Amino acid sequence: xxxxxxxxxxxxxxxxxxxxxxxxxxxxxxxxxxxxxxxxxxxxxxxxxxxxxxxxxxxxxxxxxxxxxxxxxxxxxxxxxxxxxxxxxxxxxxxxxxxxxxxxxxxxxxxxxxxxxxxxxxxxxxxxxxxxxxxxxxxxxxxxxxxxxxxxx
Length: 153
Known about the structure:
The protein starts with a strand and ends in a 5-residue tail after the last strand. 25% of the residues lie in helices and 29% in strands. Residues 149-153 have low confidence and may be disordered. The strands form three sheets. The chain has a four-stranded antiparallel sheet. A two-stranded antiparallel ribbon has the order 1-2. Strands 3-4 form a two-stranded parallel sheet. By secondary structure, it is of the alpha+beta class. The chain has one domain.
């Protein structure tokens, strides 16, 4: 039996394969692809500087996205670690499907980040890992791959 997942607003516009509860029945692979697309969209939105918002607006839609890292030297290990913490903060704050999120700089390539988390479905959860690549010229973040625990690469 496939888990039922409530679709995002944009996916509900094309209401195919809905169950009697109004939830879309999707494969885990399709769900992981959608989560990957949502994460990429989240991390390519820029949040205002922390001091630009009053405390009561932090964590709201007005604070959505990743802190701007245009002035950060992500080619240095310290800069890459600061960006990894910012990515981790954004994922923990704005994607409730992910739990136990950790983001690390896996090696000497400071433009790549490894994310590990637990992806929660309505009735199940699965450990996932994926790589993000940062383009310091455009300040864009791209998901390289998203794999659940059933993959062994």
